[in-house]
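User: Hey, my collaborator sent me this sequence without any context and asked if I could get a structure. I don't really work with proteins. Can you help?
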Amino acid sequence: MIEGADGNGGFVMTKWQMISVAALASLAAIPAEAAQFDFQFGDYSWSIDSDDAPYQNDTDGLVYAGIASLQSGTTGPTFDIDFFSDSKNGGLRLTDADSGDISAFSGATLYSIAGSAIRFNTGNFDLTPVSGGTPSRLTISTAAAVPEPATWAMMIVGFGMAGAALRSRRRAAPQAQHA
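Assistant: No problem. I've predicted the 3D structure and written it out in structure-token form, which is a compact way to encode the shape of the chain:
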């Protein structure tokens, strides 16, 4: 039985429907895919996935090694990127993995850590070169999230159940009788 009425025009779930809904709900507990953080700093841009573990994570900050960048839309240098912690007054250091050139910038702390999860702060940040000079703007954004298959399944089941409930009410409505 796919649908039923409780005598008052309401929807009655069978045992198998309840088991199916519980099974689909357990799929929804699967963790979401990782967020991708996109960085734009002057002519350079790069991305870091929130599941990417840093090469180093200590009280000085986070270090990501070998991050490929784009420079004005073309392939740019590969960087080792240090994100400084609060204890280092925030900011970042870019080390060109090929030439060894180092550029350090101070400013806001650009990330937070909750348990083992690293989350970058999104928005615009003005970072000042440590050696002095004009601040540069760093923009951190996230890519639009795509729902997981379990989310789609729950949504489709929900629409199906709502449709079944409406259909059940329509069938259970009393018919007017003419004498």
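In plain terms: The first helix runs from residue 15 to 27. You can pass these tokens on to your collaborator as they are.
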